[in-house]
Design a protein that fits this description.
This is Methylated-DNA--protein-cysteine methyltransferase. Keywords: Cytoplasm, DNA damage, DNA repair, DNA-binding, Metal-binding, Methyltransferase, Phosphoprotein, Transferase, Zinc. The chain starts with 25 loop residues before the first strand and ends in a 9-residue tail after the last helix. The protein is an alpha+beta fold. It is globular. It has helices at 56-70, 79-92, 110-122, 131-137, 144-152, 179-188, and strands at residues 26-31, 38-43, 47-51, 129-130, 165-166.
Length: 197
C-alpha cells in the first residue's frame, strides 16, 4: 500500500486565523451509529465537522479545537445540526443515499478542498473511485499521493464520502476512521459484502 492509499484520519480544525476574532455561532451533538459514536458540529452555514469514535476524550479534544477556531463556546442548537442528525440516521438505516444538509467548508482549503468537493459532487452512493482518478478529476494527474493526504484531512467523513476512495491495487486503501469502519460503510452501500458477524 502506498502513502496515497492511506488516510491519516479526520482533520482537526486549523489554528484560528489572525482575522478570526469575530465569533461564529456553532453547536454540536453526538450521534450513536452502527460504526460508533459520531460527533457532529454545525454552524449557521452548515455541517462543519464529523468526528469518528467520539468517546469522551475524543469529544473533549474536538470541542476545545472548535471553540478556539470559532472564537467561543457552542450554542445549544443550530438547525443544520438537526438536519445532519436526521440524514445520517436515515443513511445508516439504509433509507438515504444522498445528503442534502448544507456544508460549511471552513475547515478545508486549497487543494484539499478542491479534491473533497470533487469527491462530494462526483462519487455517488454505491460507487468507488481510485486516488489517481480523483487526482485526474481535479486536473492534477501527478497528485495521487496528495489526494490521499486530502482524504486524511476530510473534516466531513461519511457525508463527504472519503470511504469511497480505494486503492489502485483493488484493496480498500486506508481510512482515518479505521479499516473496519470503512468496510462497514462500503458494505452498507453494497460495494462490499456485509460482514458475516
Amino acid at each position: 500500500m502506498t502513502y496515497a492509499e492511506q488516510d491519516s484520519g479526520p482533520s482537526t480544525p486549523p489554528e484560528a486565523a489572525p482575522d478570526a476574532a469575530a465569533r461564529r455561532d456553532w453547536a454540536w451533538r453526538r450521534l450513536s451509529t452502527p460504526i460508533g459514536p459520531l460527533l457532529l458540529a454545525a454552524t449557521r452555514e452548515g455541517l462543519v465537522q464529523v468526528v469518528f469514535h467520539a468517546d469522551e476524550r475524543t469529544t473533549r479534544g474536538a470541542l476545545a479545537r472548535l471553540e478556539q477556531f470559532f472564537g467561543g463556546p457552542p450554542l445549544a442548537e443550530i438547525p443544520h445540526l438537526t438536519t445532519a442528525t436526521d440524514e445520517l440516521s436515515a443513511y445508516f438505516a439504509g433509507e438515504l443515499r444522498s445528503f442534502t444538509v448544507p456544508l460549511d467548508w471552513s475547515l478545508s482549503s486549497g487543494f484539499n478542498a478542491r479534491v473533497l468537493h470533487a469527491l462530494a459532487d462526483g462519487v455517488p452512493y454505491g460507487s468507488v473511485v481510485g486516488y489517481q482518478d480523483l487526482a485526474d478529476r481535479v486536473g492534477e494527474p501527478g497528485a495521487a499521493r496528495a489526494v490521499g493526504a486530502a482524504m486524511g484531512s476530510n473534516p466531513l467523513p461519511v457525508v463527504v464520502p472519503c470511504h469511497r476512495v480505494v486503492a489502485s491495487d483493488g484493496g480498500i486503501g486506508g481510512f482515518g476512521g479505521g479499516l473496519e469502519t470503512k468496510r462497514l460503510l462500503l458494505a452498507l452501500e453494497g460495494v462490499l459484502p456485509a460482514p458475516l458477524f
